[in-house]
Amino acid sequence: MTAPTPLTIDQVLAIPAEDRERIYREYRGEAEYQYQCVASRTSHNAAKHADRLRAAGRDHQADSAEREHEERQKSYDDLVHTKFLLAILTGRYDFALREGRPAGSSSDAARSVEITRASAARAAEIGVTIHPPEGQWLSPDEAAALTSTSASSWRNRAAAGKIPGAFKKGKQWLIPRATVTDR
């Protein structure tokens, strides 16, 4: 069996409900394995190794070792994020959804949007409504005020699907604050 690769939020949402648990277990197992690989060379150890290579005049090898560590860390982070999205959809965070809040968040704005989408999909499956955390979402009017653009352009872009993570709550579009502040 080959190692599972990170999935996009759309790929995760497309997984049939009956397959989610099996796929979650595959990702959990691979994440545990990769953790051992990443933990065996922590950032501190990787930096010391690169310093030793540089001191020996092997700058090219030091650069290569640093890149390899960064790639391994990114691969692990992506895999864990996919595992988290699957955990949301398998019901492991239903307690949070039943309290009316998303299953979690991330310091990465794009990942927070994906977590909210997975939370919303699972909430719809179990028949509960989640409320976005205060301060993370803006109305089109608020987005327009921050960017000196029109509210209608924000509504039109949201309706056309051009704003990742934007969704409609009743008649009001909600736009991720990170989307507006990253402009």
What do you see in this structure?
There is one protein chain. This protein has helices at 9-13, 17-39, 43-55, 59-89, 94-98, 109-126, 140-147, 151-159, 177-181; strands at 137-138, 167-169, 172-176. It has 183 residues and is mainly alpha-helical. It folds into two domains: 9-126, no CATH class; 137-181. It has a three-stranded antiparallel sheet.
Strand order of the largest sheet: 1-3-2
Uncertain segments? none
Overall residue-averaged pLDDT value: 82
Structural shape: flat
**Could you state the order of secondary-structure elements as H and E?**
HHHHHHEHHEEH
Helix count from the secondary structure assignment: 9
- Major sheet, described briefly? 3 strands, antiparallel
Beta content comes to 5-15%
Helix content: 55-70%
What is the total number of structural domains? 2
What is the CA-CA span between the terminal residues? 42 Å
Query: Using only CA atoms, what is the Rg?
Result: 20 Å
**DSSP summary, beta strand count:** 3
Helix-and-strand structural type: mainly alpha
Q: Outline of this structure?
A:
The chain is 64% helix and 5% strand. A 3-stranded antiparallel beta sheet has the order 1-3-2. The N and C termini lie far apart (42 Å).
Keywords:
183 residues; 2 domains
Q: How is this fold's topology laid out?
A:
Layout: H1 9-13, H2 17-39, H3 43-55, H4 59-89, H5 94-98, H6 109-126, E1 137-138, H7 140-147, H8 151-159, E2 167-169, E3 172-176, H9 177-181
Antiparallel strand pairs: 1-3, 2-3
